[in-house]
Design a protein that fits this description.
Structural class: alpha+beta
Shape: elongated
Distance between the termini: 40 Å
CATH class: Alpha Beta
Number of strands: 3
Helix content: 40-55%
Radius of gyration: 18 Å
Strand content: 15-25%
Largest sheet: 3 strands, antiparallel
CATH superfamily: Alpha-D-phosphohexomutase, C-terminal domain
CATH topology: TATA-Binding Protein
Number of domains: 1
Order of helices and strands: HHEHEEH
Number of helices: 4
């Protein structure tokens, strides 16, 4: 939070720009997959396996998040990676498995 950030700035004597300098922005991609049962996606071991595979490939150089929408019948698949190509590949890998395992509910 903001107060914690101010405390860090005070303790280190550094400006916010100096603290933020090592932070690198990565490309991000979010895909929404329409599914019939968004709450039980974790019951599908193949989906978790796809997430684990992507996280292993990232080797700590990116992140992936899969979660149900709070308001729609969607599973949200988001990733950040060093390049656009990598982030697209990672998200597509997981989305393909979600569709294969849970089906994709089309409009």
């Amino acid at each position: 939070t903001g107060i914690h950030l101010l405390n860090v700035m005070k303790k280190t004597g550094k400006k916010l720009s100096e603290l933020a300098a090592p932070v690198q922005d990565y490309p991000q991609k979010l895909v929404n997959v329409k599914v019939a049962d968004k709450e039980n996606w974790q019951a599908y071991p193949e989906i978790q396996s796809a997430i684990d595979t992507v996280e292993k490939e990232m080797a700590g150089d990116g992140r992936v998040l899969v979660r149900p929408s709070g308001t729609e019948p969607l599973l949200r698949v988001m990733a950040e990676a060093k390049t656009e190509d990598l982030v697209s590949r990672y998200v597509d890998q997981i989305v393909d498995v979600v569709k294969q395992e849970m089906g994709s509910k089309e409009d």
